[in-house]
Design brief:
The structure is a homotetramer. Chain A has about 230 residues and is mainly α. Chain A has two domains: about 5-70, Homeodomain-like (Arc Repressor Mutant, subunit A, Orthogonal Bundle), CATH 1.10.10; about 80-215, Orthogonal Bundle (Tetracycline Repressor, domain 2), CATH 1.10.357. In chain A, about 70% of the residues lie in helices and about 0% in strands. Chain A has helices at about 5-40, 45-55, 60-65, 70-80, 85-95, 100-115, 120-130, 135-160, 170-190, 200-215. At the C-D interface, helix 6, helix 7, helix 8, helix 9 and helix 10 of C face helix 6, helix 7, helix 8, helix 9 and helix 10 of D. Chain C binds a DNA duplex (21 and 21 nucleotides) through helix 1 and helix 3.
Amino acid sequence: MSISKFIHDKTATLSAKRERRKEARPGELLDAALDLFVEKGFTATRAEEVAARAGVSKGTLFLYFQSKEELFKAVVRENISGRFKEWNEEFETFEGTAAEMLSYCMNTWWERVGATRASGITKLMMSEAGNFPEINAFYQQEVIQPGQTLIRRIMQRGIDRGEFRPLDLDYAIYSVIAPMVFLVLSKHSAGTCGDPTLPGNAAKYLAAQVETILYGLSVQPAAGKPAKGKA
Amino acid sequence: MSISKFIHDKTATLSAKRERRKEARPGELLDAALDLFVEKGFTATRAEEVAARAGVSKGTLFLYFQSKEELFKAVVRENISGRFKEWNEEFETFEGTAAEMLSYCMNTWWERVGATRASGITKLMMSEAGNFPEINAFYQQEVIQPGQTLIRRIMQRGIDRGEFRPLDLDYAIYSVIAPMVFLVLSKHSAGTCGDPTLPGNAAKYLAAQVETILYGLSVQPAAGKPAKGKA
Amino acid sequence: MSISKFIHDKTATLSAKRERRKEARPGELLDAALDLFVEKGFTATRAEEVAARAGVSKGTLFLYFQSKEELFKAVVRENISGRFKEWNEEFETFEGTAAEMLSYCMNTWWERVGATRASGITKLMMSEAGNFPEINAFYQQEVIQPGQTLIRRIMQRGIDRGEFRPLDLDYAIYSVIAPMVFLVLSKHSAGTCGDPTLPGNAAKYLAAQVETILYGLSVQPAAGKPAKGKA
Amino acid sequence: MSISKFIHDKTATLSAKRERRKEARPGELLDAALDLFVEKGFTATRAEEVAARAGVSKGTLFLYFQSKEELFKAVVRENISGRFKEWNEEFETFEGTAAEMLSYCMNTWWERVGATRASGITKLMMSEAGNFPEINAFYQQEVIQPGQTLIRRIMQRGIDRGEFRPLDLDYAIYSVIAPMVFLVLSKHSAGTCGDPTLPGNAAKYLAAQVETILYGLSVQPAAGKPAKGKA
DNA sequence: GATGAATGAGACTTCATTCAT
DNA sequence: TATGAATGAAGTCTCATTCAT
């Protein structure tokens, strides 16, 4: 192998590496920004911190994002999971009971979204929605509505098939949604709600919630009717 | 009545009013601060805004609170409900089923805490806990732990009395906690989780959650066992 | 005189002083800004320099002007002389020859505008007009047009009365305008056009220009017709 | 013809083209820089803009000029017309009246300097001279002094020959200089002085100025003496 | 006590300049 | 030689905090 070969190799390698870095930069910045925004909030996060965590200088951040606010928007867009749409489609062909679908949904949601860093978006939006009305509208449309629609369809099917008791879905859907939201918030909120070890035992947590929910929603023999509390 | 009497009267009146106002000032500032911190976050809220909303000048705020951070701490301290402690004591003498106690608790919590502005603290801590470890520890101790202890004791009693099925309380308590946390977050998060009208229909929402939870927790005839999800 | 009298006096004095300073601040800042903008240009002038020259800190500047650009606009507005309007009115009642009016105008213009710091605006607009189209339009309307209108009216009257020879005023007005513009630019341009001592001898300069212009404009006996150059 | 010949040819062609471009580069950059500096000022012009307008990358600019400031100096040096020196020499052998020489000078100056992009240097120096004392000194020596010297010599000759009336040349020269400076400034100042259409009608403008100046300077019969202004 | 003018540290953002490719 | 990604000094602007009144 000649020297020129080495040179050529080196050039190619370095060039490729730089190319790869350039491609990777926005992603690295978005990752760093997601973490910090979720941890400290938008305003409390300094642009320089984001850059430093991504391993670049202050100026580089602004090479890829016009402003800190644009960075925020990009973080939300990038990490918003379009999976509810996908799951809505899956729902059409799903064979199994509504209970199975519900359980499947919650567990898959955890694996594919809740357990990933993307789940931080939930906390982020909760904290910052008021400061970013525009991006909040986008989030409503892309996440909240598809998510609620999916849950509602599953539960409606359960009722239609006689699996679930008659429910006012306007409220019943939150029996499913609240535990999921709660889980991701536990993950990102320094123990401010729930045990910090919850996310580590997400499977157990989810199993417990699913079991109670399904018991709670399902058609009950008359004998099983619980005492109604009255405050 | 001499002129000086008038003057004195006037002085007395003004001074009394000022005295009263002086007492009220910190309260007005704390109220204003709570609202703004909850709405916009700690860092994004300007001290001057707080002062303006409380109807005083910037300088006055710093007359009562050493710094913005001290103001934050005071806001949290002031609005932390010590009611869980109170309810924990009430629990000892409560006569009725565990189901009744649970229902009573959730509804009373809403009336006395959730429906008040103090509920904003939940969102506030969730957003800012990471930036204020010290105040977070305080919050854990004053709110989270007593709250979880109360729920746990009620549920344990339900199990002990045969009302509820055997439950792993480390996870089961969240069937009760999650819907409550979710409700207050809905109230303070611009629709970022759940319907913005939820807080307005809190009674219906809570009734639906309580019903499902109680169905879900109660001892079931074998026939009522729901299908288990696969995942 | 009692001690309380002293106290009262002191309070009043200090209070008055502070009040006076507050009133004076914008003016002091505008003066400083005018000097620096004229000397170094808008972009090359740092906001902090302006503040320092006005004897205040960086932050204070932004207490009075929303941004450096607003400061610029205020500087122009503040220093634009509306005198041409005033002189246009004076023209109506002026008794004397057109030549006298022209001479009066140029000399008065120097005393009231050219010799003051406001004359820096001419250079400032020349340098920055391209960067501030909006403020340039304002300047056109408030200064350029009234100024040209006045000169044109005077010259037209001169022609009408047979004092001046027939002139194409679209071009002839600049025989008057150019020397005046040139004089203020000499004052603010580090000798880049003309002798730096010109402004110090403005009276002589103006007298020389007026004399030549009036000789040049006035009706001439046929014998005096100068040789026409042809390039 | 072998393949290698082709290759060689191609290489040669490319290399020739590159050679030519290399030579041209600084010129393109200087042209771009002149336009932008004149239009927006030195500080407000970004190096990248200059490069973009010249059709090269940011890095290339710094290959040819050590810094933005060096670029500025080069722009001034490059566009400073040495023509006054040339005309000063021409003056020695010029046959014709002083009036003719003056007219010739002004018109030739417009054609060779004023009408070209190099005329922007006048505005540029006026705006930036204060920030670049060194380059200003150079400009004084290369342009201002030779220019004034030429005008002065012509006028002196006019007086000596009895064409012009006795004049204080320290001031009289500006009767010639001011209209020329005014014309180029009109061209580069967004209408901030004079009609924006002036440069388009430069010939007419110059003719009018020349006529008035010559009438104004020439020896007048006593009867033609204009009224003197009061001030 | 109350005010609000003033301060200056600190954050965002720009851009001249460098340098690996 | 040419490029353009990266840098970091420097500038604009904000805002918590102080202090004279």
